[in-house]
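Hi all, posting the design record for the shared folder.

TITLE: backbone redesign
STEP: 1 of 1
STRUCTURE INPUT:
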């Protein structure tokens, strides 16, 4: 009696192929990171707010933390949109692409820390540079995942035009982030302000789309 045998496959040939699972993990990490950002906003101690006159100064003291919260939330939102755009044009995944996105999520998880470091130690130049380094790593990991997917035929056929727009956007973002970091060597508040303006621009789509021709 003959018996049939299933073909032998290596683990690396079948691992990490579920795009749905990678997307679910990504959404979970982003939502946790966004939630952690708000923990930097601490209600002023009761001893500091005893009268109506104390409310204003107490709230003004929170402005750096509020600014950091807005900046961090915008940054996470921008990179979530970039990653979700990439997922839209992925036909399939493999183990290495899954690990590219896990590496990206590792850097996403650092953003609450770099944001807290920025707000705690502002206006030190090093605090802004730590935040910029986090953004640099986010862009590098996301661009690396896209290039890997393109070179290994994991993208849908209609990805070409969108892929060019995605690469241009990530490249321009990093140039503008670097300009903001460079400005910190002249004026730290100006560099941080430019960084916030860049993030607002990408979140609201005011100028970047026209520059990129998207």
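Okay, here is what came back for every position:
SEQUENCE:
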């Amino acid at each position: 009696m003959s018996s049939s045998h299933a073909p032998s496959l290596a683990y690396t040939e079948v691992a990490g192929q579920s795009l749905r699972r990678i997307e679910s993990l990504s959404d979970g990490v982003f939502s946790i990171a966004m939630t952690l950002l708000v923990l930097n906003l601490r209600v002023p101690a009761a001893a500091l707010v005893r009268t109506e006159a104390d409310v204003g100064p107490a709230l003004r003291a929170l402005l750096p933390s509020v600014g950091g919260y807005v900046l961090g939330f915008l940054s996470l939102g921008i990179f979530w949109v970039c990653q979700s755009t990439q997922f839209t044009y992925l036909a399939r995944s493999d183990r290495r692409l899954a690990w590219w996105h896990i590496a990206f999520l590792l850097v996403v998880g650092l953003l609450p820390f770099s944001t807290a470091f920025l707000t705690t130690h502002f206006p030190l130049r090093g605090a802004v540079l730590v935040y910029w380094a986090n953004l640099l790593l986010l862009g590098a990991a996301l661009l690396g995942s896209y290039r890997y997917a393109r070179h290994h035929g994991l993208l849908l056929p209609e990805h070409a035009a969108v892929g060019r727009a995605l690469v241009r956007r990530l490249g321009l973002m990093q140039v503008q982030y670097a300009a903001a970091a460079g400005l910190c060597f002249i004026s730290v508040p100006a560099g941080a302000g430019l960084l916030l303006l860049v993030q607002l621009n990408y979140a609201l789509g005011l100028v970047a789309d026209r520059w990129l021709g998207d």
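COMMENT: The CA atoms of residues 34 and 73 lie 6 Å apart.
Let me know if anyone wants the other runs.
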